[in-house]
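Minutes, project check-in

Agenda point 3 was the complex the collaborators sent over. CS summarized: two entities, 514 residues total, and the question is how they sit relative to each other. Sequences were read into the notes so everyone works from the same version.
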Amino acid sequence: MKYVLMFVETEEFAKEFEAMGPAERELAYQRVYQWFDEHASTITNRGAKLQPAETATTVRLDGDAPLTTDGPYIEGKEVISGFVEIDVADLDEALRIVKAWPGCPVVEIRPVES
Amino acid sequence: MSGDHAADELARVVRDHAGRLAGSLVSLLGDFSAAEDLVQDAVETALRRWPEEGIPDRPDAWLFTVAKRRGLDVLRRQENYRGKLAQLQWPVRPASDDRLRLVFTCCHPALPREAQVALTLRVVCGLTTAQIAAAFLVPEKTVAQRITRAKRKIAAAGIPYRIPRDDELPERLGEVLTVIYLLFNEGYLSSTADRAHARDLVDDAEWLTALLAGLLPGEPEVTGLLALIRLHRARLAARFDADGRLVLLQDQDRSLWDQQAVAEATALLTRTARRHRSPGPYQLQAAIAACHCEAPTWADTDWPQILVLYDLLLRLQPSAVTRLHRTVAVRYVEDARTALAELHGLEPALRNYPLFHAIRGELLRADGRSAEAQEADRHALELTTNPAQLDLLHSRLTVR
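CS then shared the predicted structure for the full assembly.
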């Protein structure tokens, strides 16, 4: 089954990351790269790391005319910061992989419609 | 009385076989939802027909035949399932018991707690949606929606039908035990002397725990929960007076306690404790219950031992509710004033918990502050919905 893992950043996490020194930050990246290496066989789409939420633009198409606004579609303390797609047997396997994720503190697992 | 007896027998037979059949059919069809629908349908047919026709000699074969016939009918358009079902002969894989897998799927942490409870009751214990709704005092439609949504998620999100790996087992087993404990609590607190209309959830909880203990021997917390449930049930006959009113532990007629059951549950607990070094939360709670059950009178209660057990429990489970229960032991080891002081810090967390105010009322009364005690009882009354507890609080306010 295919799942998209949506990585979610919190304000607190972003601040902590901001406060890191270069060496510490490098180490954090290394841990994430290692996670990608370890799960390379199940990752079917390496997805992307997204620019911060303040760079987002949202367009609403449900009104009379398209409405363009600055920012993410939901203003909140938790924002999606990236995603990957994995292909595994079932939710338990997806959970196992997610529990080993060394990056941001929240991950949403969504099955992909087949 | 004989009508009740027949209903109990009916429920017991359904429970013994429905889960087994569901387990086999999920394995066979590879579709949790479809298999569950077939079994539920067979269960409802049985509940309609058995009271009139009598329980068949082979209830398992009967349920199987009805489920299969129904399956061939409703799955007509699904060649894949139909083919599998058509070839199916009784008995289905007699040697295996798939109910353990069934339990782990129903109690998967990706499902909301209420759905875990409803699914377990329906799929593993063979309760109908109507019976679950009646037991939890919620509309049938609500239960039906919870189950439908949960089954949809099991399929769409790929929740597996298997026993978790060893490294995942402790966490997942914890989830299952929480569901059973909730069931037990609901049954225990809402039970009244009048059982004619209510499903005995405590009985279902004990049965499920015994099933788990059989399928996962050597799991000390499963045994702990089993002992806990059996110790509470041993006092059942003394929990209500002739008018169906709740009787407090201290006022119960201890000659009504089932001492045989107490001895067996205590022995079970001791055997488990001998094999495993540090007891888990359920074993500790059972040990506390055993202390109460073994005291010949309320005055003989070994409060220092109970206090030690609560301290151990708090180390594993530092919850406000556990602290609340501990204050009762503090009252008898120290005094009511010390207990009240410890209670004070719990107010923000337990302000809406009726038992907090009821215990506070007791402690205030013991400390000679009767006006404040009345006020606390009144608070407890406002927050309580359970009829037997309401009764008890009412009598406290009017009698004293």
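Noted in discussion: Chain B touches chain A through ten residues (CB under 8 Å).
Follow-up: revisit at the next meeting once the mutant set is ready.
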